[in-house]
Write a structure and sequence with these properties.
The complex is a heterotrimer.
Chain A (H helix, E strand, L loop, with lengths): L4 H22 L3 H21 L3 H26 L2 H4 L5 H24 L1 H4 L15 H8 L17 H9 L5 H21 L2 E5 L10
Helix pairs in contact in A: 1-2, 2-3
Chain B lengths: L8 E5 L6 E5 L11 E7 L2 E8 L7 H5 L4 H9 L6 H16 L5 H29 L3 H22 L8 E2 L2 E2 L7 H24 L2 H7 L7 H7 L4 H4 L7 H4 L2 H4 L35 H28 L17 E9 L2 E9 L7 E5 L1 H7 L1 H4 L7 H9 L3 H5 L1
Chain C lengths: L1 H5 L4 H38 L16 H11 L10 H17 L18 H9 L2 H11 L3 H32 L4 H7 L13 H17 L11 H4 L10 H24 L10 H4 L8 H32 L5 H29 L5
The chains are: A mainly alpha, B alpha+beta, C mainly alpha.
Chain lengths: 211, 401, 360
């Protein structure tokens, strides 16, 4: 009997992630929900690491667990009143949620199974493959270079017109990057505006009678 | 960093937040005793501070109606227990005022010597614990190391380190032991570099200045209204010290001694020695100035102790005789305020002719000093409450009696 | 190790044992660091305060004081306040500790001597270092007391804000070295003192000090330790924690202090390459042979540990000398001083590498 430790840990982390995600849904205490979500997203980061995407795993930890969830925990903690600390869900809502979630799961599973490359067991020698540098392609992609299609113009079977069409669409993710940045700036400004103090001068109060 | 509320104005926030009622104490590392401070704060900004006292009340004044004045001296020790000698002195002088007693010269110089050493010891505690409140652990150790030396001197004199009952009505319980003056001088000689160290670690430290400058600014009129005295009053620029400006019964103890009253007059502190400069950030009446006044008073007290040692040596060897324990007090009343380290400590004795007073009363300096805290803390942050409290230098034994 | 064991036991057992041993070594390193730092802190504090520190347990220098402290903590009563959320209260210290321990995965102690040679190691360390604050927040909330909540809020704000200048400062050596791989950054600084990145250009020199300030702020040491402020909130978010749970929090703090100093040492101070190239002089390089290489690496590891300890000592020195800053002053330092300085240094370093790409 030979255990493929990589697959074992991958399955274990995946199971934990799913379990904690279920716990988020099933739990009735909102702060505990936030905690389980932390563990679940940490599990996702673990899955990234196990799949060899170190940078993405680090990014997941930095942005999601260290940023978004800290903010969530903050907000939940500071505003958690009694009705939120023990939330009850009606049985009808459970059924509805199960049905919708189940349908989504079925669709996702069907799509996942239909990808030929993912269907079979791991290819031999996949464990010895070196993890490629994961930061450089991402960085290049963000500034506009489509690194996954760099060898396009070396393919001999494309016509000139097709090559030009491809090049025209090779703007990478630059536009998306800039749009998100502007969006974030707008969000920041909005938040600052909401939290500002408005000063308003009232009419002077009547002076108490002099005794 | 206080919010200035100028005139009738409403500050509105779009996001509504609730006020928080936070309780500091009575068990708390920085309330300087068993003091309960109820803080009403909106997030970090304090809107009201209510001190609640009485946790250390021991019915000292009621007991004063059941024992003779000499028997009441240990109870005065336990009022401001960090400056027991000065408490003893206050009560002794009050009863001597009632009895119209005159003390021999040596007793007078001895009392100045001991009282000023007590002042140094009390201010060392104030400085050390103030640093501790703000997170600076090391000056606390240095201050207490020096205070240990003073306490050793006191132990040689009367056998006790904290509750002395040494200065009594009619003089002192016993004269100084031989060799004590030399030890005292040795202590003073090695003490000045320590003061410089404390200045470097606290008074001139940028972080300390940031934590204390412009915090808890006390205007002189408000200080006088609330009855604040001592370094709290002098830190606001009022030049008032009972050793110079008090009643003759008290000031004649300091007759002939050269010392400066530490208060900022016309924008300047006394220039008799080289003191660290006042930083630009500090505003007259803030916590930094109150701390600065105490540090400079320590230097003045060192000078006073040296002068007292000289005069003691030259005076005729008669230290006075304590009165009989059951001595009858004449009918009448006497009230005397003395300049204790923490402020003006007043004692009152009303007698109806018996040996036991009809009423014994102590007017506590820290009581009035503490009462101003709600004024000082309005608009500051929660982290500034220990800063202000520490700068007022209160001791609960005195407040609650 | 797995190769060695394969000949004795089945392959799966070999790999799992090797993995378990490696993991245990890593955790032991973190714990040892915490234990030594605990003793060192008390000795350093004592000396600065003109006294001796522990002198009784384990000889004249109190070597075993940490052990005694650990035993004492284990033996204390396990208190959970009544209003506390029991699950979160129990879990919080371990969240912090796991975050602090995981940092050791990516910290190299010598050339190639690292548990996991990630090619985005700097990023990994910065990301995981920001996870400790989750444990703090949970602890603050789960204690069920306003004081703890206050302390946790302040600490979370402080740590999260300081991640920005910390990352900016860490970015500059990464940019100069051209890689986020710590082993590569360390190897680039081989040789003499002048090869150290801190002396590469004046902007990196400035960055080193900004990094130090942000590092001290992000591990909550004085003068930025208001989360543990004794005089204000009793002990902040740790008020309700006693006994071993408190010990776990403190171990997490010391462990992350060590790693942050280690990161500073590798990014700026040459890592395992000393001020003088001793290993080369002694002929202990890779070209000579595997044993020589191992010895050279061993010297490098000692050098690296020395630098980490120096960083930790400086942090302790600061704690026992300076008073504490208020939360708004801490945030001012971070947002109004550190971030602009780090940004200016980044621009300057960029310009410098553009003008003189091969070094000056």
């Amino acid at each position: 009997m030979d255990i493929n430790w990589h697959s074992f840990f991958f399955l274990l982390v995946a199971l934990l992630t799913c379990a904690f995600a279920l716990a988020v849904v099933i739990s009735s205490n909102i702060v505990r929900m936030a905690f389980y979500l932390v563990l679940s997203l940490g599990g996702v980061a673990g899955l990234f690491f196990l799949a060899g995407a170190d940078f993405l795993g680090g990014l997941q930890l930095l942005v999601y667990v260290g940023g978004t969830l800290v903010l969530l925990a903050f907000g939940v903690m500071l505003t958690a009143r009694a009705p939120l600390v023990s939330m009850k869900t009606a049985p009808g809502q459970w059924v509805l949620a199960a049905v919708v979630g189940g349908c989504l799961l079925a669709v996702l599973l069907q799509v996942a199974w239909s990808v030929g490359q993912w269907a079979g067991p791991g290819r031999p020698g996949v464990l010895e493959e070196e993890a490629k540098p994961t930061a450089a392609p991402l960085g290049l992609g963000l500034v506009g270079v489509r690194v996954d299609q760099l060898d396009v113009d070396r393919r001999a079977d494309l016509t000139e017109k097709e090559k030009k069409a491809r090049e025209a669409g090779m703007s990478g993710y630059l536009v998306a990057f800039e749009v998100i940045s502007v969006h974030l700036v707008v969000v920041l400004i909005g938040a600052a505006y909401l939290a500002r103090a408005k000063r308003r001068v009232d009419a002077p109060l009547a002076r108490p009678p002099q005794t | 960093m206080a919010l200035q509320r100028s005139g009738p104005e409403t500050v509105e926030f779009d996001v509504h937040t609730d006020e928080l009622l936070v309780n500091m104490g009575p068990q708390h590392p920085s309330t300087h005793g068993v003091l309960r401070v109820v803080v009403r704060a909106d997030g970090e900004v304090v809107s009201e501070v209510t001190p609640q006292i009485g946790y250390l009340h021991r019915c000292a004044e009621k007991i004063g109606e059941n024992v003779t004045p000499r028997q009441w001296i240990p109870y005065t020790d336990r009022m401001d227990y960090l400056a027991g000698m000065n408490m003893n002195l206050g009560w002794a002088l009050t009863v001597e005022k009632l009895l119209r007693m005159e003390l021999p010269e040596r007793a007078r110089h001895l009392r100045v010597l001991i009282a000023e050493l007590g002042r140094i010891a009390s201010h060392l505690v104030a400085a050390g614990t103030y640093g501790l409140d703000l997170g600076s652990f090391t000056p606390f150790m240095y201050c207490f190391r020096e205070r240990e030396r003073i306490l050793d001197l006191f132990e040689l004199v009367c056998g006790a380190r904290l509750t002395y009952s040494y200065i009594t009505i009619g003089g002192v319980t016993a004269d100084l032991p031989p060799g004590w003056l030399e030890e005292c001088e040795a202590f003073l000689d090695q003490f000045n570099p320590v003061i410089d160290e404390l200045h470097a670690m606290l008074t001139s430290n940028a972080i300390f200045i940031r934590r204390t400058a412009k915090i808890g600014v006390l205007a002189p009129e408000v200080a006088i209204d609330y009855g604040c005295t001592g370094p709290v009053l002098r830190g606001s620029g009022v030049s008032w010290d009972l050793r110079r400006d008090g009643e003759p019964c008290y000031t004649k103890m300091y007759e002939g001694y050269r010392f400066e009253v530490i208060a900022q007059v016309d924008g300047r502190y006394p220039q008799d020695q080289k003191y660290p400069p006042v930083p630009a950030a500090a505003v007259l009446g803030d916590s930094w100035h109150r701390f600065y006044v105490r540090m400079l008073e320590v230097v003045q007290s060192v000078g006073l102790v040296r002068q007292a040692i000289e005069r003691y040596r030259r005076s005729p060897p008669d230290c006075g005789e304590p009165i009989r324990i059951t001595q009858k007090l004449p009918k009448g009343e006497a009230y005397l305020e003395t300049e204790a380290p923490k402020g003006q400590m007043g004692f009152m004795v009303i007698s109806d002719g018996a040996a036991i007073p009809w009423r014994a009363r102590a007017r506590s300096s820290s009581f009035c000093n503490l009462s101003v805290i709600s004024e000082l803390c309005r608009g500051c942050l929660i982290a500034d409450v220990p800063s202000v409290l520490g700068s007022l230098d209160i001791v609960l034994g005195e407040i609650d009696r | 190790m797995a190769e060695l064991l394969k000949s004795f036991v089945p392959v799966w057992l070999a790999y799992s044992t090797a993995a378990a041993v490696n993991a245990a070594l890593l955790v032991v390193l973190a714990l040892m660091v915490a234990a030594v730092c605990n003793w060192l802190e008390r000795k350093v504090a004592g000396r600065i305060q003109d006294r001796l520190g522990p002198t009784r347990v384990g000889g004249r220098f109190g070597w075993l004081q940490s052990v005694a402290d650990g035993l004492k903590l284990l033996a204390k009563e396990d208190l959970i306040p009544q209003g506390a959320d029991r699950l979160l209260f129990r879990a919080a210290p371990y969240v912090s500790f796991c975050a602090a321990c995981s940092l050791y995965l990516a910290l190299p102690l010598a050339d190639g001597w690292v548990a996991l040679q990630l090619n985005s190691a700097v990023f990994f360390i910065l990301a995981v270092a920001g996870l400790e604050v989750l444990g703090v927040i949970l602890a603050g909330y789960a204690s069920g007391s306003k004081w703890s909540l206050f302390g946790a809020m302040r600490e979370a704000a402080q740590v999260v804000s300081n991640e920005i200048p910390l990352a900016l400062c860490a970015l500059i050596p990464v940019m100069i070295a051209g890689s986020m791989d710590l082993v590569e950054i360390g190897n680039r600084q081989e040789g003499w003192l002048t090869n150290w990145l801190v002396f590469h250009d004046p902007f990196t020199f400035l960055t080193f000090f900004v990094y130090l300030t942000c590092a001290v702020a992000s591990v909550n040491r004085a003068p930025f330790d208001l989360a543990e402020a004794e005089s204000e909130l009793v002990a902040g978010f740790m008020t309700e924690y006693s006994g071993f749970r408190w010990g776990v929090f403190f171990m997490a703090e010391y462990a992350s202090m060590f790693v942050i100093s280690g990161l500073a040492a590798i990014l700026f101070l040459g890592g395992w390459n000393g001020p003088v190239p001793i290993a080369q002089w002694l002929g202990l390089t890779r070209d000579v042979g595997p044993l020589a290489a191992w010895l050279g690496n061993f010297l490098g590891m000692c050098n690296m540990l020395l630098k980490c300890s120096l960083g930790v000592l400086v942090m302790m020195w600061l704690r026992w000398t300076l008073p504490r800053l208020r939360i708004d002053q801490v945030m001012t330092v971070c947002l109004r001083y550190c971030i602009p300085l780090a940004a200016v240094a980044l621009l300057g370093a960029m310009w410098w590498t553009y003008m003189w790409p091969g070094g000056w």
